[in-house]
Amino acid sequence: MIELGIIGLGKWAGVLARAAASSDKLRITRGFSRSAGTRASFASDFGIDCPDRVEDLLADPALQGIILTVPNELHLEYALRCAEAGKHVYIEKPITQRLDEALSLRTACEAAGVRVFVGHCAKLLAGVQAIRQHIDAGELGDLCLLEGHFFNPRALSLTREDWRWYQDKAPGGPLSQIAIHQLDVQRFLGGPVASVGATSARRSPARPEVEDQWLLSLVFESGALGSIGSSWTAAGVFDIRVVGTRATMHYRIDQTLWPTAGRLHESATLTLQRQGQAFHQAERLPVAAGDMFQDELERFAEAIGGRPQPDFDADYGIEILGMVEAARHSDRHQGARVDLREFVRQGLAKGAPIDRNIGSHT
Amino acid sequence: MIELGIIGLGKWAGVLARAAASSDKLRITRGFSRSAGTRASFASDFGIDCPDRVEDLLADPALQGIILTVPNELHLEYALRCAEAGKHVYIEKPITQRLDEALSLRTACEAAGVRVFVGHCAKLLAGVQAIRQHIDAGELGDLCLLEGHFFNPRALSLTREDWRWYQDKAPGGPLSQIAIHQLDVQRFLGGPVASVGATSARRSPARPEVEDQWLLSLVFESGALGSIGSSWTAAGVFDIRVVGTRATMHYRIDQTLWPTAGRLHESATLTLQRQGQAFHQAERLPVAAGDMFQDELERFAEAIGGRPQPDFDADYGIEILGMVEAARHSDRHQGARVDLREFVRQGLAKGAPIDRNIGSHT
Fold first, then answer.
1. What value does the mean pLDDT take over residues B80-93?
2. If residue A299 lies in a helix (H) or strand (E), which one and from where to where?
3. A166 and A133 in a common domain
4. N or C: which end of chain A has fewer CB within 10 A?
5. How confident is the model at residue B350 (pLDDT cuts 50, 70, 90)?
6. Nearest CA in chain A to B239
7. Candidates A200, A223, A337; nearest CB to B334
8. Is the predicted pLDDT of residue B362 greater than 90, yes or no?
9. Are B130 and B265 in the same domain?
């Protein structure tokens, strides 16, 4: 049983704490928030000890890893503190705000001998795994087109009190917050991405700083195309469609249940539409029960135990963040496609020397 | 009862002849194909007189209009012949192959006092009309994102014997052949388009000259975004999703029934998903029976009768063709967004003087 700490005790910490509670591979035993009230209520809700000082959590020899559910802009700072303390670190997506920060983080964690695990959970959805199995079995033929959507109404209720309002805290709004899950899914199903194009818009009457609509076009190294739509002003949608020369698969979940992933299979639909079939005649496949959040935490525990998790490591997090940043770059340049490999290389190179970042915490 | 002739007696002529047969506003009384065998079988199948010479059809004083179902590259030539003969002309989409040709056609028809009607039928689908009514009633709120797909497996079976194999005959493959219907639908639902971006790919093992996958990104003048995916290697899909700040509507038909439009309502689905609702809890709306092909032919008859049809006239056809051409231009330029108004203006200006085109047929 792997013991973990958790830093950042907002809504998402509760989601992960519930997912962890029913695992027999790990448990969360200590938590920290800068707010005393939040510490008290988290300790009460989950029976988890929440010390007053983060140093006490980081110094606890029983903890083998730390889960970070702090706002994006704090990912680097807290991950570096975990590395200094010799703790393996789980970071919610995106790995950091900028590519140069991600390089700093990766370098520091390598030097400290701790593993980085980035919470790119969406690929663990039961339907996504099922599509992957059908692709691998050749049932779809050659892949031609992948299409995914992630919509929710977040921008309609945003206020200046929410960090997601601000471009420097949640770059691109739904792009870095929810569309990023579709980037994970498409990378998992379609393989490496060669280029990214993007177009954004602002439609929310709340008028946050961030864009609230994104359309992304991916060209995979295989030659297939990917399309991602993301809206922060919409009724909830999460779906993925994969078009192959032999068949098309389509998976849809009830997006409003996203935080209670263990219930998603109850209303999810997964279909296999072969050439010549109409959609309503497509084969309806069963969707396995599952909980992507528990699965990802258990994979973090496996990583701590020494089993590599290449779909969740720092390099993977950097690749996905590279797509997010490339999309923003494309949008600023009339939507022209951005060569991903070259863009990531340049983005990583912009960083300050790692010693300087580490130094700020000593 | 309006009497019409039809030129080009391939598969699509049969679709329109069946749609016309049950109309009480028009009838098709004469047909022409360059192939004697095709003329004979069409005459036999539909009881329609098919003279040996196109001149006989064009000179028939009983005919008030001509339906052109010839390959795209012949649209201009035959439309000009109709204009010379003083016949109103129905042209299958796209209006012509190039914008300069469309300008020639429009000018010639205006000079001859005949109306041009372009067969942009998809907006007449019952579900598209229903979405438009819900938009107009304010039930969706402000529009944010429109998404449409049109897939079929055409490229899997293309051969060099088919004009659709060739880039100069079916430019962009599915782009000018089926995605164009989604451009019509999105223009109808979302209003004028400000810019177009596009990315294409070739995935068909048959390897036709044309691209077989397209992703389009539209920015509407309203500020909303539009996304269109089109594949020529896929099981049949035609759907449209419209995201507004109050609700999302989704309409799906059985694409394999496209040529038998009168049956589409039997298996079509139309849903209204309000904010807070999951998709499977969305309101399921009835889909009215209808036949978009009969509807468009009757609108052509109304145009002949003097009632303007601005959603089907030459200017409309030029606007939609402009989007097709802008998408190809964007794809050749790394997918960067193309300003539609400026692009169309330049495309129209490239044309040869109209007299020269007219002259080639006298």
1. 97
2. helix A292-304
3. yes
4. C
5. confident
6. A279
7. A337
8. no
9. yes
